[in-house]
Amino acid sequence: QVQLVESGGGLVQAGGSLRLSCAASGRTFSNYGMGWFRQVSGKEREFVAGISSWGHSTYYTDSVKGRFTISRANTKNTVYLQMNNLKSEDTAVYYCAQGRTGAAVRSRNDVDYWGKGTLVTVPS
Q: What does the alpha-carbon distance between residue 39 and residue 117 come to, in Å, rounded to a whole number?
């Protein structure tokens, strides 16, 4: 059974940094693209960043470009989201996602498996 477990969420002041991790298990991690999404109450789950199976391609939503970096360590079956210069608008539950192919996850339609999420809070 595929499982994705996020960690690293918490409270950080505006302008600060946080690194999220997602540990994957259940199938060969290096065969699949990954992504990060976020969701706030009353809004749809939003794409944040995606990465292809070997990390050669990355994608970001405009609002996080230049601030967030997605990466992966296939030897550790882990994908990361480094978040810098955090803003209050980044407050959300962040979800890790795994795709159906080696292509980067870039939309909810690409997602085969979801993690349960980790909360990131950036006070105003």
A: 9
- Strand partners for 20: 81
Q: Which residues are within 8 A (CB) of 117 and not within 5 positions of it... i.e. 6 or more apart?
A: 6, 39, 93, 94, 95
The pLDDT of 16-45, averaged and rounded, is 97
Q: How confident is the model at residue 118 (pLDDT cuts 50, 70, 90)?
A: very high
Q: From 104, 110, 94, select the one nearest 40 (Cα to Cα).
A: 94
Distances 70 to 1, 49, 102, 124 between C-alpha atoms, Å: 25, 6, 15, 25
Residues 6 or more apart in contact with residue 71 via CB below 8 angstroms: 51, 55, 79, 80, 82
- Determine the average pLDDT of the residues in 65-78: 97
Q: What is the DSSP letter of 45?
A: -
